[in-house]
Amino acid sequence: MKLRCTYCRGAFPWQADLPWPKSCPLCAEDISIPDRGDGGVVMPFIRSAKMAATDKTYRDIEKGSEIRVEKAAELTGATKEDMAGLKITNMHDNMRHGDIASMETSQADAAMARLQASTKTPIGFQANGAEFSSGISTGAVAVNGKIVTGIEPNAGARAAQRVARKMQNW
């Protein structure tokens, strides 16, 4: 086995069955391991780029949830405290592939129900995908300031429903 001196950076052979050397045989500097007294294993904090990127992602998600709380309070006329259930404050960081990172959603679900009840336009995902085509149930769409009438409104939502029904029987 070879050891490297932390002072002179020189490598020297050492027998693995011997205890750690007290001094470097090349430069005679003290390289002994200090006795901590508590017998604990010391491990340095090593922050990798991958860990930093993951932490930043979680912080950005939490910051975005604060903005959503403000927007929801503004849209519904409620206070930020009423919408505080939408804020993400504690995400699971010990996940496996397919796990959901957010905590329990009962408060967020209740806040979404209040928001949907207080507005006339559809909010959130509708069962038939119509949230992507609200306002064009007649087939009329404004394109560059001109009203264009479509031949089949909500065609995409209905096609998605047909595909889903076929997939259930498959």
Reconstruct the topology from this structure.
Layout: E1 2-4, E2 11-13, H1 49-76, H2 106-118, E3 140-143, E4 146-149, H3 155-169
Antiparallel strand pairs: 1-2, 3-4
Q: What can you see in these coordinates?
A:
The chain has 170 residues and is of the alpha+beta class. The chain has three domains: 1-34, no CATH class; 49-119, no CATH class; 126-170, no CATH class. Helices cover 33% and strands 8% of the residues. The strands form two sheets. The chain has a two-stranded antiparallel ribbon. Strand 1 and strand 2 (11-13) form a beta hairpin. It starts with a strand and ends with a helix. The model has no long low-confidence stretch (mean pLDDT 77).
Which terms would index this structure?
about 170 residues; alpha+beta; two-stranded antiparallel ribbon; elongated
